[in-house]
Write a structure and sequence with these properties.
single chain, 141 residues, alpha+beta
């Protein structure tokens, strides 16, 4: 992906084009599994957290309520997620991975790692690791 010359000195533009580049590769890698990068992100969050409320999942992913409702609906129809009653609050449902969701999450993570590796192939391994570490440090602290 080519960044216009006038934008090559702008951090925000560089991050945007990097995001577009990795998203394109990840989309191609996840295509055969029938999931999007956003769906994989939700599967991954649930894989690590167990059962999570829908609004909590939205906050973790940085998406709005309408988007999480649609995402959960799609993924439930695909058999990747199940809504289970919250034992502490019967009015609320929690999201949990189904066995199919867990399998797709594991396969998706492998596909994602390969796509990320391909994206970073222009850097040597040490620089790629350092780049990822620095981004994590900026975003997570």
């Amino acid at each position: 992906m080519s960044v216009p010359a006038g934008l090559q000195g702008q951090l925000g533009s560089l991050l945007k084009y990097a995001h577009l580049g990795i998203s394109e590769r990840v989309g191609r890698a996840l295509g055969p599994l029938g999931v999007s990068d956003r769906e994989l992100a939700l599967l991954t969050v649930l894989s690590g957290a167990g059962a999570v409320g829908q609004q909590s999942a939205a906050r973790l992913l940085g998406i709005d309520r309408t988007t999480i409702v649609n995402l959960v609906h799609q993924m439930t129809r695909k058999g990747l997620l199940a809504r289970v009653p919250d034992a502490k609050d019967r009015r609320r449902n929690l999201l949990r991975l189904t066995p199919a969701g867990r399998r797709i999450q594991e396969q998706g993570e492998c596909a994602y790692r390969r796509a990320a590796h391909d994206f970073l192939a222009a850097l040597d391994v040490g620089d790629a690791d350092r780049f990822t570490l620095l981004l994590r440090q900026l975003l997570v602290g």
